[in-house]
Amino acid sequence: MTEQLAPSVEELARVDELTTRFPEVVTPDTRKGYEGYIVRPENLIEVATYIRDEMGYDFLANLCGVDYLPENKMEVVYNVFRTTGGRGLTFKVQTPRDSSSVPSLTPVYPGADFQERETWDLLGIRFEGHPDLRRILMWEGFNGHPLRKDWREPFFEEEGKPFKSRWPEGHVYRIEDKNPFANNVAYPEGFDPDQWEPENDARLYESLRRSVKELYSDLDTEIIMVNMGPQHPSTHGVFRIAVALDGETVLALKPVMGYLHRNHEKIGERNTFLQNMPFTDRLDYLSSMSNNFGYALAVEKLMGVKPPERAEYLRVIMAELTRISNHIFAIGMFLNDLGAYFTPALYAIEERELILDIFEAVSGSRMMCNYFRFGGVARDLPEGVYDKIYKLVYDRLPRRIDELDLYLTNNEIVRSRTEGVGVLTPEQAIAFSEAGPVLRASGVPYDIRRADPYSIYDRFDFDVAVRYHGDTYDRYLIRIDEMRQSIRILQQAVRDLPEGPIQEGKPQYQVRVPAGEAYGRVEGPKGELGYYVVSNGKPNPWRYHVRAPSFINLNAYETMCVGNKIADVVAILGSIDIVLGETDR
Amino acid sequence: MSDMKQENINSTHYDIPLELQNQVAITTLDKIYNWGRRSSVWPLMFGLACCAIEMICTAASRYDLARFGMEIMRPSPRQADLMIVSGTVTKKMIPQIVRLYNQMPEPKYVLAMGACASGGGPFKEGYNVVSGVDRYVPVDVYVPGCPPTPQALLHGLITLQRKIDAQSIKDVRWYRKGEIAEIPIPVYGPDLIDPRQIEIIKQQTRQQPAAEQMEAASAEAQA
Ligand code: SF4
Fold first, then answer.
1. Any ligand 1 atom below 6 A from CB of B51
2. Which chain B residues have a beta carbon less than 8 Å from that of A164?
3. CATH superfamily of A1-139+141-155+179-196
4. Which of A94, A411, A567, B215 is 20 to 30 A removed from A479 (C-alpha atoms)?
C-alpha cells in the first residue's frame, strides 16, 4: 500500500482545517511513521464534536490505548471515518502514565462505550464522564491492568519471542516448574485469602438497575433479574446476558463478557509479527481467512509491500468464500435460536463443509488456515482445487443459497418472530459504531470494500447489500443478499485469476517492520475488522490491537432488546452474529 | 454393537442347552451394564471456543455422532454423562465449569478436546488462561489438535467407550460407600484462587510476592 505514504491533497487541506480552527489545541503528529493529530485532553470533546459535525466523520471505528512506557505516557487513539466513504482520520490524546485519565467520548460517539471500558480494564486509563466504567473482560478485583507494559503475567518468560529457552540453545523447561503454585497464578505481596471478599457482581446489578430506572421510573411492578449464560445453549458460546424483566418484557440488559478472554493482545505483543498470523485465525474462528487479511494489510501498510496479482486474487477468493461460509453458518444457527432445532443448521453445515474442504486443501487445516503472509499467501492452489472452486461458485452454491432462501424467507414462523423485532435506526446504528450486516440492515450502505477499497476490490462489479427496516428479519435477509454478492465477486475473481508468483520477494520468517503505526481494516463477515499495530522497529509489535466487530456490535444490543420479550433477546443475538473468540479476544 | 454378537455374549463359560440357544443369552452384569452406558452417552451441550465448532460439525450429518448414540446433547448438566471441554478454559470461566461438573450426576466423564483444554494450547502463557482443565476437574480422555478434526474427536469418543467397557460395577466409584466429594469452586481474587491452595498462597504472600520469585526464576533460567 505504498500510495498511502504520501499525503493526498485532501489530507493536506484537512491539516489546515483542524489546526487553524483549533490552534495550540490540535497539533499534527510528527513522529516518524505516525499520522493524524494530537489533541489536548481538556478540549477533546469540543474537537471531537467538531470532527463529527463539521467535518462529517460520524463513525468511530476504533478506540484503543497504547502504553508508551519509555516516554512515560499513555496515548488513546481514535480512528474515525465518514459513513459516506473515503479515508479516515486519526486523532490522539496523551496522558501521564500514573493517574492517567482522559474525558470520555461517549457523549459524542456512544459507540465508544465498550471500547473505553476495555481500555480502562486492560490499560488502566480512566475515562472521566463515562456512564458505566466497569471492567469488561476481566473481573472486578483483578490485580492490575494487564496490557500495561510493566505488568507481567504469572508465566512471564521474556519480553519478546523467540524465547531464549527454546532458541537457539534450546534448554526447554516447563514454566509451571518455576511458579511457586505450579499454576498460572500470582498474587500481590501481603495478600490474605482469608480477608478477601470475592466479587459478587454488585456493580453489574447496580448498573442494570440504574438503566431500568431511567426508562420506567413511574412503574411500580416487581422487576426480576435473570441471568442467561455463560453456559446457555443460545448464547453461541460463553456469553452472559443479565436482563431485568417486567413479566416477559425486557426493561434493561447488560452483556457480560470475558469468559473467553484469551489475552490475544498481550500474547500478540510478545510474538513476532509473523507469529501473530495463526493467532488471528483464532479470533473469529468461523472466518479465519478474513482475519488473516486484515492483519496482513495492517503490517503491509507499515512495511510498504504489495502482494503480486495472483496472490491478490487468491486473497479475495478466500475472503469471499469465508464470507459465504460464515453467513450460511450464521443463518443456520440463527434458525436454531428461533427454535428450528438443528434442521436448517444441518443444511448450512453441509455447504460449509464443502468450503472447508477447499480451505483444507490450500492451507492444510479446515478452520485455522494461517494462509496469508506479508506480501502474499502461503501456498498456491493444489491441483484440482481450482476446478472445485469453479464448480462451487458457478453451480452449487448459487443453487443452495436460492434453496435456503426458498425454504426460510417466507416461512410464517420466521417472519412473525423477526419482523419488527429489535429495530435499530440508521442514526443509532452509526452512533453505536455498528458495522457490517448490522449497519447495512439499518439502511446505511457502508461497506469498506466499496467505501474505502482495499486489495483489488475496486475491480469487481458488485452491489453493496442494504436493507432498510433495521429489524431482525432484515438482518437475516441481508446475509442472503451478501452471499449472492460474494458469489458475483467470486465468479469474476475465479474467471480472471492470473498466473504468476504468489509472494512478493522471498518468504521470510522474520520480517523487518519499520517503526510507525498503521490501522488496517477489512470488511469481515461480521463487520469492520481492524488491526491497529505499532512497531518500534523491533521484531515484536509494540502494540497490537484488534478492532473486533462482534465486540463493538454489542454496543447496540441493549437498545435493540429493550421493550421486546425475553425470547426475542435470543433471536436478536443470533441476528447480530457474534463469535466469542473475537468478542473477548 | 459388535460385542452383542452371540458368540461374545455367550462367552461366559456356561453351557446353554441346544434348544435354548438363540432364546436365552447369558452374559455378565458388567458387560450388559457397560454396553448400555457406552451406547448412549449424552454429552453436555456446551462449547467454549473454536473447538466447539468442530464439535458441532462432528454432530452434523457428515460425521454423524448419532452412530454412537451420542447425538442427544443436553443443555442441562443434570441430564448429561459426558462433558466435552471444547476449547480454551479461562480463569473467568473455570468456576462455572467446576460447578457444571459438580452438578452432573454420576457416572460422568470428561473429555478434553484440543490443545487448550488439555494443557493451555497456544494461549497457555495468557494471564487469564487455565493451563489445562485437568488442574480442576479429572479428565478421562485427551484429544490433541488445534482444533482436533472431527475424526480425531470421534476417535476420542471411541477411546472413551473402551474405557467404559473396561469398568466393573464392583469397583466403580459411584457405587462405593460414602459420598463423592465435590470439587471446591475456584474464587475470583486478585488472581484466581483455588481453595485447595489457600495454605500455599498464605505462605507465599507472606514471604515475597510471586512476581519477584518468577523474575528471579527466569533470570536464573537465562543465566
Ligand atoms: S485448541 Fe486450538 S482450536 Fe481448540 S480452542 Fe484452543 S486454540 Fe481453539
1. yes
2. 222
3. NADH:ubiquinone oxidoreductase Nqo5 subunit (3.30.460.80)
4. A567
